[in-house]
């Protein structure tokens, strides 16, 4: 029994046993499939469009605080889902799988920071608005602090939309999902 286990484990280490072409990982996607990327891109852009819609028109529903609360909750969840989708796409790249996480973090640091900042500002703004408006929706609630937060959240939203869209388009590049000469050079520099 011990010999059969040793034989099985050595077969897994034997290069002739591996049927994958050299230079390709034995796990994960071998290439980026257009249909999968199109579906993910459609979901991401749909969530971004919903977020833009809520940012644009949520104040028109101020007389219905329950509806506005539901929209705010769905908006915050969609921002979180978009962040999770981007992280999963980053984890799925060949660059991540060979251990060059620093390269990805360097490239996408701005998008990750703006996503976290935008989610935080959105939750704070939504909580503040709903707290002031819940009992009396006709009352003027726009204090100086709330107006400043509102403007800051909208400015960060514009930057978030830009960096997020740019990142989704960049992650569609098939070179991130396969072995290439530039990746080998970066890997060699990282090992030194």
TrEMBL record:
Presence of keyword Transmembrane helix: yes
Signal peptide feature range: none
Where exactly are the transmembrane stretches of this chain? 69-91, 111-129, 141-163
UniProt keyword annotation of Flavoprotein present = no
Assign the protein's first listed, main location to one coarse class. other
Q: Which UniProt keywords apply?
A: Cell projection, Cilium, Cilium biogenesis/degradation, Glycoprotein, Membrane, Transmembrane, Transmembrane helix, Vacuole
Q: Which Pfam families match?
A: TMEM138
- What InterPro entries would the database entry show? TM_138 (IPR024133)
How is the protein disposed in the membrane? Multi-pass membrane protein
What biological-process terms (Gene Ontology) are attached? cell projection organization
Cell compartment(s), UniProt:
Cell projection, Cilium; Vacuole membrane
One GO CC term, this protein: vacuolar membrane
What family does the Swiss-Prot or TrEMBL record give for this protein? Belongs to the TMEM138 family.
State the function annotated in the UniProt record. Required for ciliogenesis.
What is the protein name for this chain?
Transmembrane protein 138
Gene this protein is translated from: LOC115559237
